């Protein structure tokens, strides 16, 4: 036993020192990704706290606030039109108990006159524009605006059509594939491998595991974006579970796991841009940027623009 420890302890110590060394200096092992844009201000659902979500009016408002990224979700209508909609069902946003996929584009109902802001409970957005929009119209209206397109389900026709629109409008470098599910992301990457990808949930957990095992500096990372919730919003503006006890536990555990400045700095140095969502209060903006995040996704682009203008560019990661 003593002889085993005699060899194991020095080997373990050497491994730990090497891991820490390369965690802080990843470019000695990896060439960092070079991004076509820097998403400091992202507009969640187009800026759903200031105008009705996912409408052209909301996106125009976000662009007026010099947003760097529009965060959108897509669904497919019965007649094969890719539309910008967070929900598969029209019930919450339009009051109609039908799915988007059960209607043709021209049959889609208007949004309600007001919609509650999901990450600011008790607050409601209004707007004069209540129409659902086609993804193609968004690409035409904002040809050089970076957009994160989230696909929630394994709808191969939807994925194929999004990929085709991105190619047609020559947006491969500025349109991000996003999905929570690795099975969906696999199909997205196959449909258009030129588009940058964000971490799925399982891939995010894998990176955390590698980080705590000390292996992350030695593993390649194909993703270019980590778009993650900020743990401090759990049980305040984000309630992932119906049980308050589970929300409290999730807040504590995720804060301990995710809010590691050394992890974020390592990813940033490797060209993986870290963006936290969905932050609607200045105190949360401050937490995110102090951690070293590239940017923030918010429902209130005007508030985040004011914060950024008042605080200047973030200090570069050391």
Automatic annotation (TrEMBL):
Cited function: Hydrolyzes lysoglycerophospholipids to produce lysophosphatidic acid (LPA) and the corresponding amines. Shows a preference for 1-O-alkyl-sn-glycero-3-phosphocholine (lyso-PAF), lysophosphatidylcholine (lyso-PC) and N-acylethanolamine lysophospholipids. Does not display glycerophosphodiester phosphodiesterase activity, since it cannot hydrolyze either glycerophosphoinositol or glycerophosphocholine.
Catalysed reactions, as listed in the record: 1-O-(1Z-octadecenyl)-sn-glycero-3-phospho-N-hexadecanoyl-ethanolamine + H2O = 1-O-(1Z-octadecenyl)-sn-glycero-3-phosphate + N-hexadecanoylethanolamine + H(+); N-hexadecanoyl-1-(9Z-octadecenoyl)-sn-glycero-3-phosphoethanolamine + H2O = N-hexadecanoylethanolamine + 1-(9Z-octadecenoyl)-sn-glycero-3-phosphate + H(+); N,1-di-(9Z-octadecenoyl)-sn-glycero-3-phosphoethanolamine + H2O = N-(9Z-octadecenoyl) ethanolamine + 1-(9Z-octadecenoyl)-sn-glycero-3-phosphate + H(+); 1-O-hexadecyl-sn-glycero-3-phosphocholine + H2O = 1-O-hexadecyl-sn-glycero-3-phosphate + choline + H(+)
Domain GP-PDE: 39-308
Molecular function terms, GO-annotated: metal ion binding; phosphatidylcholine lysophospholipase activity; phosphoric diester hydrolase activity
Lineage of the species this protein comes from: Eukaryota, Metazoa, Chordata, Craniata, Vertebrata
Main subcellular localisation: cytoplasm
Protein name, per record: Lysophospholipase D GDPD3
GO biological process, one term: phosphatidylcholine catabolic process
Organism annotation: Tursiops truncatus
SUPFAM superfamilies in the record: PLC-like phosphodiesterases
InterPro entries: GDPD-Related (IPR052271), GP_PDE_dom (IPR030395), PLC-like_Pdiesterase_TIM-brl (IPR017946)
């Amino acid at each position: 036993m003593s002889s085993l420890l005699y060899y194991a302890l020095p080997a373990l110590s050497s491994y730990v020192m090497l891991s820490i060394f390369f965690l802080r200096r990843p470019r000695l092992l990896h060439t960092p990704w070079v991004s076509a844009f820097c998403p400091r201000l992202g507009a969640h659902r187009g800026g759903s706290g200031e105008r009705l979500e996912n409408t052209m009016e909301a996106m125009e408002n976000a662009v007026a606030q010099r947003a760097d990224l529009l965060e959108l979700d897509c669904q497919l209508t019965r007649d094969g039109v890719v539309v910008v909609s967070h929900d598969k069902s029209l019930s919450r946003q339009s009051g109609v108990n039908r799915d988007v996929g059960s209607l043709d584009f021209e049959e889609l109902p208007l949004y309600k006159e007001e919609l509650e802001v999901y990450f600011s409970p008790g607050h409601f957005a209004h707007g004069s524009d209540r129409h659902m929009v086609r993804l193609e119209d968004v690409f035409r209206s904002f040809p050089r605006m970076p957009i994160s397109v989230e696909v929630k389900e394994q709808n191969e026709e939807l994925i194929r059509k999004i990929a085709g629109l991105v190619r047609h409008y020559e947006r491969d470098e500025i349109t991000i594939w996003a999905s929570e599910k690795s099975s969906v992301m696999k199909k997205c990457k196959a449909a258009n491998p030129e588009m940058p990808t964000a971490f799925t949930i399982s891939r995010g957990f894998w990176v955390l595991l590698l980080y705590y095992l000390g292996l992350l500096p030695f593993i390649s990372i194909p993703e270019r974006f980590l778009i993650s919730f900020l743990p401090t919003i759990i049980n305040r503006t984000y309630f992932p579970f119906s049980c308050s006890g589970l929300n409290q536990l999730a807040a504590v555990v995720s804060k301990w796991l995710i809010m590691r400045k050394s992890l974020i700095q390592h990813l940033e140095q490797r060209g993986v841009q870290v963006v936290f969502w969905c932050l609607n209060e200045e105190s949360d903006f401050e937490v995110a940027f102090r951690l070293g995040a590239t940017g923030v996704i918010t429902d209130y682009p005007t508030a985040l623009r004011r914060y950024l203008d008042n605080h200047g560019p973030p200090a570069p990661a050391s």
